[in-house]
Design a protein that fits this description.
Helix content: over 70%
Protein name: ABC transporter permease subunit
Largest sheet: none
Keywords: Cell membrane, Membrane, Transmembrane, Transmembrane helix, Transport
GO cellular component, one term: plasma membrane
GO biological process, one term: transmembrane transport
CATH superfamily: MetI-like
Radius of gyration: 22 Å
Subcellular location: Cell membrane
């Protein structure tokens, strides 16, 4: 009975979590009149692709998706590289003030993002990076406290004997990291890459502040632009949201096995 009750609770939580995504995908294929006149769970009959075609052609959603792909892809690459190096230094190397520096850096997670937006904008303006890809990418491309903490916790689960054996064979620090530690850390790196990509893809506030032209605007801004001050074309908003959702679903399904394994091994569950 306890197991039945547990699974019922988990099933209810899964339904609540997945329902908005299913409703978005279903409504994206409805006729414009049906979006507001029928319940969200009613199937899209007849199915229409006009909403997606209109968003794709008239509102240049392909360009916004490409901007988001460049933005999220480069930020993810930077975070995986630099977070890995910082996590190895904090987790496997010894140097004066290591723990104080790590916990001080980790404490910056308590600072709300809104507090740093204005200073970041002023810095980007001084470097002439307003409305550019570099202005979008640089603030988060060199690692985040969460990413470094996540990878560091995983590195600490790797037995020290493995690293010591490599050093006895003459391996240096860089060789140990790239040829011993990283091959054993693929699950956590896949997890970090997935979380970073999804978080960056969904970011709205920083792209809204740093960009001011369609040349660099990302998909979240493209979707928000479909909502007018006095009226909104909900069928187009839902179609654009469905297009933005599909890449995230594909990435999660591709890496879900690594995510579950890394969370179990790091004890973060």
């Amino acid at each position: 009975m306890k197991k039945i009750a547990l699974y019922l609770v988990l099933l209810a939580g899964a339904v609540v979590s997945v329902a908005p995504y299913l409703m978005t995908l279903n409504s994206a294929f409805k006729q414009p009149a049906q979006v507001l006149t029928t319940p969200a769970w009613d199937p899209a009959l007849p199915v229409t692709l006009e909403n997606i075609a209109q968003v794709w052609t008239e509102y240049d959603m392909a360009h916004f998706l490409m901007n988001s792909l460049i933005y999220a892809g480069l930020v993810t690459l930077g975070q995986v590289v630099f977070s890995t190096m910082a996590a190895y230094a904090f987790g496997r190397m010894s140097f004066p003030g290591r723990d104080v520096l790590f916990w001080g850096y980790l404490a910056t997670m308590m600072v709300p993002q809104i507090v740093t937006l204005v200073p970041l904008f002023l810095i980007m303006r001084e470097f002439g990076l307003i409305d550019s890809y570099l202005g979008l990418i640089l603030p988060t491309a060199f690692g985040t406290p969460y990413g470094i903490f996540l990878v560091r916790q995983y590195f600490r689960t790797i037995p020290k004997d493995v690293e010591l054996a490599a050093r006895i064979d003459g391996a240096g620090t860089w060789t140990v990291l790239t040829r011993v530690v990283l091959p054993l850390s693929r699950p956590i790196l896949a997890t970090l890459a997935t979380i970073t990509f999804i978080t960056t893809w969904n970011t709205l506030l920083w792209p809204l502040i740093i960009t001011n032209s369609d040349a660099t605007r990302v998909v979240t801004l493209g979707i928000s632009a479909l909502k007018g001050q006095y009226s909104s074309q909900y069928h187009l908003i839902l179609a654009a949201a469905a297009l933005a959702l599909l890449p995230l679903i594909a990435i999660f399904l591709l890496f879900q096995r690594h995510i579950v394994r890394s969370i179990a091994l790091t004890g973060l569950k």
